[in-house]
Amino acid sequence: IFSDVESAPPIEVFQMSKLYNESTNPNKVNLGVGAYRTDEGKPWVLPVVSTAELQMANDRTLNHEYLPVAGLPDFRTAALRVLFGSDHKVITENRVEGFQALGGTGALRLAAEFLKKVLKFDIVYVSSPTWGNHKGVFKTAGFSEIKEYRYWDSETRGLNLAGMCEDLRAAPPKSMVILHAVAHNPTGVDATKEQWAEIAKVCQEKQIFVLLDCAYQGFASGSLDEDAWACRFFANQDIDLFVAQSFSKNFGLYNERIGNLAVVTKDPKKLPEIRSQMEITIRVMWSNPPNHGARIVATVLNNKAYFEDWKGQIMTMSSRIKKMRHELADNLKRLGTPGNWDHIVKQIGMFSFTGLSPKQVEYMLSKHVFMLSSGRISIAGLTPKNVQYVAKCMDEAVRA
Ligand code: PMP
Question: Locate the Aminotransferase class I/classII large domain: which residues (predicted)?
Fold first, then answer.
């Protein structure tokens, strides 16, 4: 029965991790996967996560019963508060509800299912370029048209706002768009507040439904509030809106698959119907979500002292990444590497879109520096020990 099954193409980012793990080269560096690393190049369990886990392990009132279909209530409300701020009008006016999902990916998948099956959307716009999984998730949910809007301007290594707005203005009726809320993956280029206002205006004029993908709250500026600016701004416009939230990065809970889909509605009277449709959509996908990650996040967000600890630990991560951006750019400057590398410092979040060509990336791989063929590197994979080597390889790649 399986004789006609052919191999699917490898998933590039996991392929890079595999090559990295298999490499015996002492200089090997993994700049593929978007996961935080310490100065020693090690994964980091946030101390506040360990504290919450210990507390959970000692709490004999907890059990392993099924969670409600929509998720752990304490988690869902706390996630919304961190996203919008507790006094945001969508919260005080009861116009938002969260649905626990399997990471940010699960939140996107749930959104896509609901948009296709319940709201009958068929056309989605994604940025060019975008995170590799956006297209796959929406295609799998049955969207017939996955269209791209211009985003990255390779000349300026910045945002092509005019191109983006022009493409969105040309969107057919009943289109929806995925906007990266903060720390755009893969380019590291975000809209300014003024540019966001222009983007929102186009979406409103053309009645494009907006899904904000918020996978890096806290990772861009180090401030949860600042990084939620675009989400809060859109929610302020009195529109219907989805936000897919991920706690993989800002809690370092990559393998716990903890995310939340925030549904903002103009009309709070519709929330019971929305909730029932969401629940039935969840029921056939994962039935009910896992507990562990949700309980950790809820424990931290609902305890003032832990919440403060968490904010400090987010700052530790975002500051280290910023420091490594500077070190990489400084090393390239020191080497006199041809070209301008200021964008490495200017770009935001976990990634840098280096501008290296596929051929130059091939050279990097031959030196056991693993990165994506698009030229994207995860800055979190740089350490004081490997940054010089990475810069040297980049220098050689550019000159080759
Ligand atoms: N959206 C974007 C833009 C991302 O970069 C990622 C993670 N790489 C996700 C969503 C999914 O996050 P998660 O790991 O929580 O599924």
Answer: 27-392
